[in-house]
Design a protein that fits this description.
The structure is a single chain. It contains four helices and six strands, in the order βαααβαββββ. It has 126 residues and is α+β, with helices and mostly antiparallel strands. The chain has one domain. A hairpin with a 4-residue loop joins strand 3 and strand 4. The longest helix is centred in the N-terminal third of the chain and has 15 residues. The protein is globular and about 35 Å long. 31% of the residues are buried.
Length: 126
């Protein structure tokens, strides 16, 4: 279970596009295709692409389901621990301000976000 540096942004930007990076990784798409699709979703909803409602609707329309992480220890359950507890899960993990791709017990990000506190996750339903 480990942090893996992942940055598909064509200009290697490190901030502002975590939703695009996480969705691109999870759906095995390019950063550019993912960006265009989520921006188009935002346009149709008259909202910003980084809005939880916009990218959440995009994921729902692509067969994903959202699951809330119980709030029994709101400040002590981390991204790192969630990945260790869910080694077979591939999806998208969200904190209050950040979005991270997860797969095989690893988390993929431009920085080590393992100490962040997750609040919900998305996984593709079969």
């Amino acid at each position: 279970m480990a942090y893996i540096m992942f940055n598909p942004n064509p200009t290697r930007k490190l901030v502002g596009d975590c939703v695009i990076r996480a969705v691109a990784k999870t759906m095995n798409k390019s950063w550019e295709d993912t960006y265009l699709e989520i921006v188009t979703q935002g346009f149709s909803m008259h909202d910003m692409p980084s809005s939880n409602d916009v990218w959440g609707t995009y994921l729902l329309e692509h067969g994903f389901k959202r699951f809330i992480i119980p709030d029994s220890c709101p400040d002590c359950y981390t991204v790192r621990q969630f990945c260790a507890d869910n080694p077979n899960l591939t999806g998208i993990l969200a904190t209050g301000t950040h979005v991270i791709a997860i797969s095989g017990g690893d988390y993929f990000d431009t920085w080590d976000s393992g100490d962040e506190v997750p609040i919900y996750y998305w996984r593709k339903e079969n």
